[in-house]
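Backbones bend. Our protein:
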Amino acid sequence: MNTHSNIHIGHSACPHDCPSTCALDIEIVDGRLGRVHGSKDNSYTAGVICAKVARYAERVHHPDRLLKPMVRAGAKGEGAWKEASWEAALDLIAERFLKAEELHGSETVWPYQYAGTMGLVQRDSIHRLRHAKRYSDFFGTICTNPAWTGFAMGAGDLRGPDPREMAKSDCVVIWGTNAVATQVNVMTHAIKARKERGAKIVVIDIYDNATMKQADLGLVVKPGTDAALACAVMHILFRDGHADWEYLYKYTDDPKGLERHLKTRTPEWAAEITGLPAVEIEAFAKLVGETKRTFFRLGYGFTRNRNGAVNMHAALSIATVTGAWQYEGGGAFHSNSSIFGLDKSLVEGHSYKDPHIRALDQSQIGRVLTGDPQALYGGPPVTAMLIQNTNPANVAPEQRLVRRGLERDDLFVAVHEQFMTDTAKLADVVLPATMFVEHDDIYRGGGHQHILLGPKLIDPPGEARENLFVIEELAKRLGVDHFDGFGLTARQHLDWMLGKRGLGSFDSFRKERWADVQPDFETAHFVKGFGHADGKFRFRPDWTGTAAPNRPPESIGIQGPHERLPEFPDHVNFIEAADAEHPFRLATSPARTFLNSSFAETPGSIKREGRPELMLHPEDAAMLGLAAGDRVEIGNPRGEVVLHVKMFEGLRRGVVVAEGIWPNSAHERDEGINVLTGADAIAPYGGAAFHDTKVWVKAVQE
């Protein structure tokens, strides 16, 4: 305790769905949060965190936090509630789940969760209840599928060079991620390389965002055309003698076949597709070809198109053509998610999971809840749900279907939440949830290499309870609390996981705060071979036969137009292309001070973001007779949304961007941007194409 300032410093990790997973030093004053700082002791966080997490006290001590269980007292969505005890609320949930099972069988109940917290105990314990009760399984598709699939198709594993090596690079290529807004520590290490080594920073994205403003070379492409750029770059590398043939013969499957395939993928060909001038493509390829220590930091954004897995595989292939993997500060990195080795079998109840239970696609919740037979995979309707850690009425595609489904009178929904979100407003029971400083958990950083502890630091307000409490109490009422994994506290689960990983116990790990589990150079850089059985990087991927982290369960099968996936890296045009009736392509990019639907309730973030706006090129605006600040309606066959025009020159003609997931209530008509986005599956292993939407744009008629 610091007697001069009366501030105690607690140590934790950011719980949000961000690859940075920052190590945090948190000021605590009389049981309340003060300022939150990035830990200077952690070599990846390096003392830097985003502004929204620095102001986390705004969330924890927000006056609108849910504090008591509530039961609906009027029509769905009407806003009439009555307070209830935890006992009564949990009894009601269990009663309705059991009644639903009697009518339709166990698969009629669908526990639905995602990444509102990335803690392995609080996030994933819902699966233990799911498997014990034989409820419908959950195929998570809203985030990582196309990115992880595309990377695994080439490299055979989900790992890569130590991301701290960016600081040792001579060129850092930040591709398809607005790192300033979404993973700030990428910039920490890239800018260090610039300052200490004179490294060049290249940013590739669909608009001139905050990250591109930091670039030495910024390339603005049309959405869904990244593979065309990658192919033209590789064409130039082969043409100009920058391909490392010794490396290619040793480490890849068919380099000569790739060279032949790329003969016609010229810069001029790519310019027509991407909107980039051929001279910019030539300059980028020359820089990469002449700079052996080039580090490709590949993001998620450019994979959220219907051809997203192909885009990732093509971009990844560039580092292999140059042999950049051989050098410290070189190669390609997307995620280290395969290195952590934390055993979740007890938390998730793997021993009693039945593979014959049907799985339902997270992104197609709207179709599921409105009875689409294909989305239900021949099983019963969903008539009961427990929702934790996610806000599908706001963040899921095909929002009108989602809302229509949640409003069904025969659907019972319990939501465990921190605020009255768009989803909670449509629930039958709402339970108050803790935040990360109010419970124990453990985290792993996909964007780096640390396992981090997040111990409870303060008491929760009101009657807020952790996710694990809800799962345990429902298990008792539903008669499955005798299954392995139930009856344990969060700390006991953590003791088990840490012990299995050889990292001690909760108490010993609390002293360490984190563990650096980065593999050695040879493993990280695939010096002994890539992750496929033959050790070769695959330019010719087996699109439907390759093991990957997000491969769908057999009950769902291969997804999307997989039969049209290319033999070699290529541009495949099964994006939702603009047409005469929908001449614009919309991307729903992240806002700097929101994180999915989190932080959209905090005063600092709302002030920074202002209001829902549509970035529109001035020449497109002039063509439509629109001025800055005008109200516009954008739409497609899925619906229409009203936004205000923001003039923005930093995108291609015919491309529009709406940043952030604002609450539906922040929009006119109470409908948010995901009214417009589709839930078509991305080939071959699923995913949601949030940046792949055709729309029309017109002035609002008064």
